[in-house]
Each structure stands twice: as structure tokens, then as C-alpha cells.
Amino acid sequence: MKKLNNICIWKDTEECNDCSINGRLICHFRRKYLFSFLGFFLIFVITAFIGVIQAGFGWFLFGWVGFWLFFFEFWEIRILCSHCPYYGEDGKTLHCIANYGSLKPRKYHPEPMKISEKIQLMIGFIILMGYPLIFLILGGQFIFLIISIIEIFIFFSFLIIKRCGDCLNFSCPFNRVKKEVVDSFLKKNPVMRKAWEEAGYKINE
Ligand code: SF4
Ligand code: SF4
User: Fold this and answer.
1) Burial tier of 90 (Cβ tally within 10 Å: 0-12, 13-18, 19+)
2) Could you read off the pLDDT of 96-137 as tens digits, one per residue?
3) Which of 51, 90, 112, 139 is a Cys-bridge partner for 2, taking CB atoms 3.0 to 4.6 Å apart?
4) Where do the domains of the chain lie?
């Protein structure tokens, strides 16, 4: 049993049987969630790789891959993931539905994301998605550009429609979980509740 931070998602699932919000959140890791996330992202990545190479800027893809490492392993993991209940698991690596396997270089932050972190997240996403598009434009690869933009649109639509309404990282700017569900989750998780209330969040009793 993994109990660091006493978060219910890392306790025995028997406790979920009596939970009023059971089934309303993605409380536990499932391979299908991870593979669907990676699948939609990889389709865009493959298209962008081919297009950038066709454009004659293949060497610049090393810069993109380098940014992934920086973003997923250092930047995003601090500003977004360190606030997520998935991050509150005991151990050195993340076992979640998107950044599975990433190292956890920072401690868990049970409080909600700050405004400055939300802004940074948006900037990070723009760089992450926009980097190859610049080279597709410079190289005149407009078919690849249009396909890539459509794939980005599909990727974020998939996340917003299929994941963000059930995601445990409630303070993420994309999160759409209803307040009543957030409140129920916080009531079950005292460490997180205390941090949220100290940050000014009000729970409806
Ligand atoms: S909120 Fe906690 S107790 Fe309820 S179903 Fe999810 S993991 Fe189980
Ligand atoms: S579910 Fe999302 S926010 Fe939570 S740890 Fe994984 S990638 Fe980060």
C-alpha cells in the first residue's frame, strides 16, 4: 500500500466502494488512458517530424526533443504535475495517465496552482506545439502545417472532452470537474484540503 500524503487514490480500492464520487474521476491509473494520450500526441509528433525533415530543417528537431525533456522533466512537472494527487504517490517516478515514468525531482505540492504557474503552463504548451510549426512555415511545407494544426486541435479536443472533466488536477486551467466533486474529493483528503483552504478555497459543507 502506498500512503505518502495520505491521498485516497493510493489507498486500497476497497475504500472506493462507499465513495459518493466513485466513477466521476479518473482516480486510478489505467493503461488505456495513457495509451490514448500518447497516441494522439505521437500522431502529431510523427507528422511534424516528417514535415520538418522535408522542409530541410531536420537538425532543428534535436532542439524540439531537448525542449520535451526540459518541459516534461523539469518545467511542467513542477508547475502542473507537482500539484496533482498522482504526484503524491510514494516513490521517485510518476505513475499517471499522461506523464507516466517521469522522474519527480520536486516535492509534492498539495495546494492549487498559482496564477503564475498557469501562465507558464500556457507559454510551455505554445512552445511545445509551436516549435515545429515555425520550421514547416519557413520550409513552405503547408500541407504538413495544416495537418499538424488539425492534429493539435484533435489532441486538445480529446483532452478537454474526454479527460479534463474527470481529471484529479483540479487547479489546472483546463480542468472542468464540478465543484461538488472537487469538494467531496478534498473532504476525503485532509492534506490537500488544508493546503487548498490555506490558499483561499472555500468548500461547501
Ligand atoms: S475519490 Fe478516492 S475514495 Fe473516491 S473513488 Fe476516487 S480514489 Fe476512491
Ligand atoms: S495526470 Fe496530468 S497533471 Fe497529473 S501528474 Fe499526470 S500529467 Fe501531471
Assistant:
1) exposed
2) 999 999 999 889 999 999 999 999 999 999 999 999 999 999
3) 90
4) 28-177
Q: What distances in angstroms separate CA 91 from CA 47, 101, 188, one per listed residue?
A: 35, 11, 22
Read off the C-alpha cell for 60: 532543428
Predicted TM-score (pTM) of the model is 0.92
| pLDDT, the chain, mean | 95
User: Length of the chain in residues, anyone?
Assistant: 205
Relative to the alpha carbon of 14, which ligand is closest? Answer: 1
- Which residues of the chain register pLDDT less than 50? 1
Question: Which spans in 139-164 are helix H?
Answer: 142-158
**How many whole angstroms from 81 Cα to the centroid of ligand 1?**
19
| Rounded distance from Cα 57 to ligand 1 centre (Å) | 48
Ligand at minimal distance from the CA of 29 is 2
Give the Å distance between the CA of 94 and the centre of ligand 2.
8
171 closest CA partner among 201, 129, 198, 128: 201
Q: At which residue does the C-alpha cell 505554445 appear?
A: 126
